[in-house]
Amino acid sequence: FNQAKWQMIILDSLGEVDLENQYLERLIDQNVDGIILQPAAITSENYQFIEDMQLPLILADRKTYPSQWLTIGTDNEAVISRLFDQVNLADYQSFVVVSEVLAPVSTRQDRYYAVVTACAPAPVQLIEVGQKNWQEAILDSAGQQKTLFFCNNGRVMIEVLRILKQGHFQVPQEVGVTGFDDWHMTDMIGPGITSIEQPTERIGAALAENLLQAIESQKSLKAGYRAIPSHISLRSSV
C-alpha cells in the first residue's frame, strides 16, 4: 500500500461482531476506497451493507457463507493432509485437536475437519480452549494412551505445551504435538515442534494487490477461496 501511495487504517474488533460492525460503519463514514476484512461472523448477510455501498471488499483467511467475495488465506485442508501423510499415525492410540471455540470461525472449522479426515477411521477428540475443564481434558487425554495433539494456532500450541510440561509429559516420548505456528517460534521450543508455518507475508501481499486491482478497475473480484501454500517444518515432536 505504501508503494502505491495509499493510506491504511487498521482496526481490531477482537472477534466481536457488534464492535466489528461499528468499525465498518466508521470506515464507510470516512469514505474509504476498499476494505480487507477478517470477518468475525460467518454469514455473508452480515456484510451485505458493504456490498450495497459498492465498496470493494476482500476477506482475509476466513470465509463467509454463502460465498460472495474473494477470500485469500492458508491452504488449510491441503497442508494438513500433507502433514499427516508424513506422520506415522500407527505410533499413536488417540488424536486430539485443541482449538479456540470452532464456531463461527471458518478457519478453525476447516482445520478441525481436515484433521478428522486425515486420521480416519480413527476418532478425533475436540478440546475447545476456554470451555469447562479444558486443561484437565488435555492432561486426561495425555495420561490414558499415547496421544497426538494438533493445535489449531500458535497461541493454542503454547498453552498445550505449557499444560503438558506442568503434567510432566515428555515430547515426543509420551505425547506428540504438532499444528499451526503463527509466530515461527517452534524451532526454539523443547525438541523442536513439527509445525505448519503460514505464509502470512504472501497472503498479505496478495490481499493488497487484489484490493488495489478492484479499486482501480472498479470491478468486483470473483468470489471464492484462493489458497496460498504453507510450509511444513518437520522437527522432533511427532
- Which strand-content bin applies to the residues? 15-25%
In total, the number of strands is 10
Using the CA coordinates, give the radius of gyration. 20 Å
What string gives the helices and strands in order?
HEHEEHEHEHEHEEHEE
Distance between the termini: 40 Å
Shape: elongated
Q: Report strand order across the widest sheet.
A: 5-4-6-7-8-10
| Fraction of helical residues | 25-40%
Q: Could you characterize the architecture of this molecule?
A:
- The protein is of the alpha/beta class.
- The protein has seven helices and ten strands.
- The longest helix is centred in the last third of the chain and has 18 residues, at 200-217.
- The chain has a six-stranded mixed β-sheet with strand order 5-4-6-7-8-10, sandwiched between helices. Strands 1-2-3-9 form a four-stranded parallel β-sheet, with helices on one face.
- Helix content is 35%, strand content 21%.
- Helix 2 (48-52) links the parallel strand 1 and strand 2.
Features:
four-stranded parallel beta sheet, 238 residues, 7 helices, 10 strands, elongated, alpha/beta
